[in-house]
C-alpha cells in the first residue's frame, strides 16, 4: 500500500527539517528520501522542492546525474551481472540473457512483482571468480547458465 499524499508530505518535512535554510543538503535529503521510499517518487520530489525552495528541474538534474538515485520502483533484490572483460570472456552475456528470459525482465528493469531489478554493471571486482553476479550484497562466482536458477531461487 502506497503512502497517502499527506503522509508523504509530512515525512518529507521531517527529512528536510535539518537542512532547511542551509546549503549543501540536496544530496543528503535525496538519499534519505530514497532510503524511505526505495526510490524517488515524483510526489516526494515535488514535496522536497516545495520544502527546500529548490526548482523541481534542479532536483531532477541531481537525481538523474548520480547513478545512486532511482526514479522508478526497484525490486526487493538487486541482481548485478558483471560485464567486465574477464566475465565477458567467460560468458557473462549468456548469463545475462538467461536471467532476462527466466525473470522476463529487460536490462535495468524490474519484475512486475517488484521482487528483482536486473542491472548489468561494468565490473564487480571479482575477476578471479568470473563470470560473476551479485544479488544484493552477495557475490556468486564461477556461474553457468544452469546455476542461475539455483541462485535466484535462494532469494525467493
Labels describing this entry:
156 residues; Glutaredoxin; 2 domains; 4 strands; 12% strand
Structure, explained:
The chain is an alpha+beta fold and 156 residues long. It is 46% helix and 12% strand. The chain has a four-stranded mixed β-sheet with strand order 2-1-3-4, covered by helices on one side. Helix 2 (26-37) runs antiparallel to helix 3. The protein is elongated.
Short summary:
It contains seven helices and four strands. The chain is α+β, with helices and mostly antiparallel strands. It has a four-stranded mixed beta sheet, covered by helices on one side.
Helix content, binned percent: 40-55%
Using only C-alpha atoms, the radius of gyration works out to 19 Å
Question: What class, by secondary structure content?
Answer: alpha+beta
Major sheet summary line: 4 strands, mixed
Basic shape = elongated
Look at the structure and name the CATH superfamily of the largest domain: Glutaredoxin
Strand order of the largest sheet: 2-1-3-4
Beta content: 5-15%
CATH architecture descriptor text of the largest domain: 3-Layer(aba) Sandwich
Q: Mean pLDDT, nearest integer?
A: 93
What is the H/E string? HHHHEHHEEEH
CATH fold topology of the largest domain: Glutaredoxin
Low-confidence stretches: none
Count the DSSP helices: 7
Q: Count every beta strand, where a strand is a DSSP E run of 2 or more residues.
A: 4
| Domains (count) | 2
Distance between the termini: 21 Å
- Using the coordinates above, name the CATH class of the largest domain: Alpha Beta
Amino acid at each position: 500500500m502506497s503512502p497517502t499524499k499527506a503522509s508523504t508530505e509530512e515525512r518529507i518535512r521531517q527529512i528536510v527539517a535539518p537542512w532547511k535554510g542551509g546549503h549543501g543538503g540536496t544530496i543528503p535529503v535525496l538519499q534519505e528520501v530514497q532510503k524511505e521510499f526505495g526510490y524517488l517518487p515524483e510526489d516526494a520530489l515535488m514535496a522536497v522542492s516545495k520544502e527546500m525552495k529548490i526548482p523541481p528541474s534542479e532536483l531532477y538534474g541531481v537525481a538523474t546525474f548520480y547513478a545512486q538515485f532511482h526514479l522508478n520502483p526497484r525490486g526487493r533484490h538487486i541482481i548485478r551481472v558483471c560485464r567486465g572483460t574477464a566475465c565477458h570472456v567467460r560468458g557473462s552475456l549468456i548469463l545475462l540473457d538467461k536471467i532476462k528470459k527466466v525473470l522476463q525482465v529487460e536490462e535495468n528493469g524490474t519484475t512486475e512483482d517488484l521482487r528483482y531489478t536486473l542491472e548489468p554493471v561494468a565490473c564487480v571486482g571479482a575477476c578471479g571468480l568470473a563470470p560473476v553476479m551479485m544479488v544484493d550484497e552477495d557475490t556468486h562466482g564461477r556461474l553457468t547458465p544452469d546455476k542461475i536458477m539455483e541462485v535466484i531461487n535462494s532469494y525467493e
